[in-house]
Structure formats: C-alpha cells, structure tokens
Design a protein that fits this description.
The chain is of the alpha+beta class. It folds into two domains: about 1-30, no CATH class; about 40-105, Fe-S cluster assembly (FSCA) (GMP Synthetase, Chain A, domain 3). The chain is about 35% helix and about 20% strand. It has a three-stranded mixed beta sheet with strand order 1-2-3, with helices on one face. The longest helix has 12 residues, at about 80-95. It starts with a helix and ends with a strand. Mean pLDDT is about 80; it is low at about 30-35.
Length: about 110
C-alpha cells in the first residue's frame, strides 16, 4: 500500500497525514462499505415524472444535476414560477430517501 495508493491519495489530498491499512480480526485487509439506502438518480427521475405535465404547462424546465445518496440530497437546475419550485421540492421531500433539495437557477 505504501507505493501506489498512498502516493495517489497524497497527491489528491495534500493535507493527508498518514495512510494506514485496516485489518480485519483475521489479519487480512478488508473493505468496509457504507450501508446506506439513499435515493438513486432513477428514483428521482421517476418521482419527477408525475410533475412533467405541470412543468410543461407552467413553462418551467428542470434538470437533475446531482443525487447524493449518502447525504440524501438532490440538486436541481430549475427555471419557472415559484409555485412550481415548491411543488418539485415538496414532491422530492415526500420521498422517504430524500432529506434536502437544492435548486440552481438557469
């Protein structure tokens, strides 16, 4: 680990102090994956599909910019009236896997 990955991490993160291997009780290196159940990009698109007629009717537009499944945050690029923004935000926040919605304006 000292050669490749440590060097790559120190280049990517200059403030990084030490890189250490974490071993399982058996002594072999192990990876720990975060067990999260955040929303996926597809689930966001499906949630917003129901609003497509209203978005079109109110001459709004939106683009899903980012979905952070760990932070449970959705970022939307948006243009349109305030009531449409509130409907989009409410629809996404009603989803049990979303805690916050951020809007970027076109």
């Amino acid at each position: 680990m000292k050669m490749g990955i440590e060097r790559a991490l120190k280049i990517a993160f200059p403030d990084l102090q030490d890189v250490v291997a974490v071993n399982s009780p058996t002594g072999s290196p192990s990876l720990t994956y975060l067990d999260h159940d955040g929303i996926t990009f597809t689930e966001v698109e499906e949630s917003l599909a129901a609003l497509a007629p209203a978005i079109k009717h109110l001459e709004g537009s939106l683009e899903v910019v980012a979905v952070d499944s760990i932070e449970r945050k959705v970022t939307i690029r948006f243009s349109g009236p305030q009531k449409l923004k509130l409907a989009i935000e409410g629809s996404l926040l009603d989803h049990p896997k979303v805690d916050s919605v951020e809007f970027l304006y076109m």
